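Hello again, I could really use a second opinion on something today. I've been staring at a protein lately and its backbone has me curious. Can you walk me through what the tokens say about the fold? Take your time with it, there's no hurry, and the full record follows here:
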Amino acid sequence: MTFSHFLLPVAALSMIGCASQPAPPAHDAGTATVLGAHSADARVLIQRVDNGPILYVAPGAIGSKVSITPGHHTVKVMCQLGGAYLPGEVTFDVEAGKVYELTASAGEGGRCNVAAASRG
């Protein structure tokens, strides 16, 4: 077996391992990280912060992680609850260096209820 035959499987396994790692905390001490929760019941996708631009991670796709500055913010989201996508939003105070998780549940009037909680 040559070295190149060994290197390819090791490289592939290392990429798989990286994909399963949890999101890191905010890198910049001056910002906070906001994460959309992903569970068997609900998935929270972050659409925009404070009426800013839509936060696309790829053409036509929004993600579940954003770094924001400290202060009072409104985060608009899309919640995937079962097969339905429902809009929602949450307003909360953000502190630098913290990680916040957004969770969702079904609400009334075709909207989702969103809550923000600090993870540490």
